[in-house]
Amino acid sequence: MDLRILFLLFSLLHFHKTHATELNTISRSQVLTNDDTLVSPTAIFELGFFQPDGSANKYLGIWYKKISVKTVVWVANRDHPVTNASAPLVLNITNVGNLVLFNNNTMIWSSNTTTKISHANLQDTGNLVLMDPQEKMIWQSFDYLTDTLLPGMKLGRDYLRGIEWRLSSWKNNQDPSPSKFTWGTDISGYPENKLKKGSVVTYRGGPWSNQRLTGVSQFDRRLTLVFKVVVTDSEESFSYIIENSSMLVRTTLNSSGQLEGSFWVEDSKKWQPSISLPRDICDTYNICGAYGRCSLNTVTQSCACLDDKRFVPRNEKRWGTSDQSGGCVRRTPLECKNGSDGFIKYSGVELPDTENTWFNMSISLKECEAECFKNCSCMAYANPDNSLGGRDCVHWLNDLKDIRVYPAGAGGHDIFVRMASSEIVGQSSSKNKGGMKAKIMLLVIIPVVLIIGLVSTWFWYARRKPKHVEQMVGDVSESQLPLFSFSTIASATGNFSTDNILGEGGFGPVYKGVLKEGPEIAVKRHSKTSSQGIDEFKNEVICVSKLQHRNLVKLLGCCIQGDEKLLIYEYMPNNSLDSFIFEKTQSMVLDWSRRFNIIKGIARGLLYLHHDSRLRIVHRDLKASNILLDSDMNPKISDFGIARSFGGNETQANTHRVVGTYGYMAPEYALDGLFSIKSDVFSFGVLVLEMVSGKKNRGFIHPEHDNNLIGHAWSLYNEGRSMELIDEVLANSCDQPEVLRSIEVGLLCVQQNAGDRPNMSSVVRMLDDEGSPPTPKQPAFYMQGELLVADFTSSTYNAGSVSNLTITEVVAR
Fold this sequence. Notes:
This protein folds into five domains: 1-144, Bulb-type lectin domain (Agglutinin, subunit A, Orthogonal Prism); 148-279, no CATH class; 283-431, no CATH class; 465-570, Phosphorylase Kinase, domain 1 (2-Layer Sandwich); 578-809, Transferase(Phosphotransferase), domain 1. The protein contains 14 helices and 52 strands. The chain has an eight-stranded mixed β-sheet, with helices on one face. The radius of gyration is 30 Å and the shape is globular. The two termini are 53 Å apart.
């Protein structure tokens, strides 16, 4: 007999209780059964088994003990309800050290601890803790948030233990399983909290700051919140406490995606709301676009440019039809030379999104300005900490988005926005007047002194510079992409040290670097032996510089000097997707929830390329190695060297130079050189099946029926056994409906006929569970005995000529 069952029977025989019992602790000699509870020292909280109103399922949870309204603040088995509520429930500490919930001899939930535990306590904070014999805490429920943030709980990340703290709402009042709404921390720049529906940001809480808010409730002025921010190498966290410890306060993310703060009022026997977020239409994320500001006039929302004198709508026609999503641009472009730019101060501002920012938490505002002034990529600076003596410095390194302004005296921050010198003369700015006069004098005198030298140098350089380099510089100038000097990039990468190489692909080696201003970068250095040349370099510069989406890698600039061609990208600390899903150890890092978020993120990135960008872009080389992962494991599509753009109503094109990677190429592209958005859809479908299975399509041959990965997935689907495709490391974390939906979407995308494949807008809807997917037809490159179409996934196939078209394999980059 299973030792676990023997232990359970032993526990039931020796510790069975005939009536409900309130325990102060759970030790190895105690068992919590159906009607028993574990109570905190002063009986504020209680742990036990509960059934949500209207539900037949049972859960292990924590709630307030003394208040009349049953209010659950934490659920252990939210993904695994006890459906047979009449069967015996047992919670105890096993010999191996786990706190385990059993239902009728079946393990429902476990703390997954391995250190020997002596007992479990419920603290007055609502935190369930497991302690070892030396009274050291081994595990705590505060590390595994559900929908409620209590005082003392944290949002953010513990890097040492690999834990992320975030809220996820219940699906509804009867079902505590996680819904699409989450409230967590974005640490891609200066940390701030964001409300998301899936991977889409719907509301932003603003940059973190240590502060004390007194009388935050109009119903009880005693309510004072104190925020605590921790930003270190080992932890980035945000938490709050209540100064009046006798008050019961909670923050809850409800199933409608609303963040609600409330406190218990004993006289009226109810939870009294103190705040509800988002508050109004101006809280809608980035509603006015880049450099657009949202303000409320009584009850109406109004978008305007940050400054009507210095900014103009990006698209005047759309702006006039109340479509402000395109935002605004500077009336006068920045010059960023000879110290000619300055800064204009704007007050009463809710600081912009800090997604791509640099920060330093130990320098003054004056030092912050000086550092920003030296960096041409710095668009603005501010101190988000309004407390006395606050020394936080934040630099915004791209367009300012999601800006809200408040009436005078109603709060907000000061932000200093970079402007061309002509926009600053005679205006209030962060530069002193004497300094501005000196700059104006220099602007007049220096050209007179240096004009002859500059002109002669220009003629000398023009005569010796190769024409293709001159043309490239012109193309880059048109793209308005920043040009870096070769010495700057050499210094940032340790003179292109081999220790800084991140990888190497068709373009050449990729180096990690750190600019003097602080941001980490990834540098792609063109190799003289590369299969890619000037055309691919220009294509990537011109194409990517015009693309802006959270799921596309951001091109920060480039460098052209002699034979050197360098592309400078934002640095992705988690490298590429293939380094995770195809590696046995690393694959365990990506549980199903993360994989599904990555799948949906890639889908949204492709949707932008195909439908929402200014030009319709076909990537032509979508694969796992070209998906980069940021610090939050968010996916970013990269490598646009062979991408092609369509204009007007164009939807497809032919080429006599077929490039890409075998295993991901659509049949019409590989055989006939015909590429379209549907050839990208095919590549996406392959990628989805690889994400689910953890197997590469190229080189996979099933030992029993000689199918490749696509064929294997198709066979399992037809036999109703699709769940057998899943990567074994996902067995305990997968959401079966999501897995089945993903496999079905993957098979729809790899159908043989391009016209049968869905477009990316349909793919995104299907992944979001909006509507039932159609039944997929037979896929392309499906093998069983002999090829039905063509086998470009076989490692034995040689690149060559097919239908008079050259097939050129571009290896992983």
